[in-house]
Amino acid sequence: MSRGNGAIDLSPMEEVFARYADQPNALIPILQQTQALYGYLPREALERIAERLRISLAKVYGVATFYAQFYLERRGRHVLKLCDGTACHVKGTPTLLVAVEEEFNIGPGETTEDGQLTVEIVYCLGSCALAPVAVLDERVMGRMRPEMLVRRVKRQIGAR
User: Fold this and answer.
1) Which of 39, 53, 83, 116 is deepest in the core (most CB within 10 A)?
2) CA–CA gap between residue 82 and residue 120 (Å, rounded)
3) How far apart are CA 135 and CA 126, in angstroms?
4) How do 139-141 and 134-136 pair as beta strands?
5) Burial of 17 by CB count in 10 Å (0-12 exposed, 13-18 middle, 19+ buried)?
6) Is the dihedral angle over the CA atoms 32, 33, 38, 44 positive or is it negative?
7) By three-state DSSP, how is residue 141 classified?
8) Burial class (CB in 10 A: 0-12, 13-18, 19+), 58
9) Cα 8 to Cα 35: distance, rounded to the nearest angstrom
């Protein structure tokens, strides 16, 4: 939802503001709906939210950066989360990360240049018995090995 000049088209947000017009304290749901529109929270959108809710931009940023569900940077079409909790770390997450870095040329918190893959490190997914665990596009994959993980990610990216 960007215009040819790189500017973000904020017009889809009007429906979000209309939906919460009678709820002056609806910052979190407005942030959630905005992120659903754009895939992340562009600065221009945060500025519009602050303006429309008549609150400071600092408050909007404070909420957006406090909750892990919000992203201020564009994310890839596919998201790979690698668990690095104690069990997963001991059972091999560092080797999974090396394999991903070498194959896709990105590290934690980065997105491939083509916008296809974002890699995130998370700390405990609650699936310790399946360690090491990776989650690709919300699908949990346990007992991962580097070559298996790379193969599955390539398959998912190619599945467009």
Assistant:
1) 83
2) 6
3) 12
4) antiparallel
5) middle
6) negative
7) strand
8) exposed
9) 13
**pLDDT given at position 87:** 97
d(CA 10, CA 21): 17
Q: What confidence score (pLDDT) does residue 100 get?
A: 98
Domain spans of the chain? 13-66, 78-158
Q: Is 25 strand, coil or helix?
A: coil
Q: How far apart are CA 51 and CA 119, in angstroms?
A: 33
Residue 39 has a pLDDT of 87
- DSSP state, residue 2: B
- Cα–Cα distances in Å, from 118 out to 27, 86, 104, 110? 26, 23, 10, 6
Collapsing DSSP states into helix, strand and coil, what is residue 46? helix
Asked if the model's pLDDT at residue 2 lies above 70, the reply is: no
* pLDDT (mean) for 28-47: 96
Under DSSP, the state recorded for 68 is T
pLDDT in tens, 66-121: 998 899 998 999 999 999 999 999 999 999 999 999 999 999 999 999 999 999 99
Q: pTM above 0.70? A: yes
Helix 43-53 × helix 57-66 angle, to 10°: 120
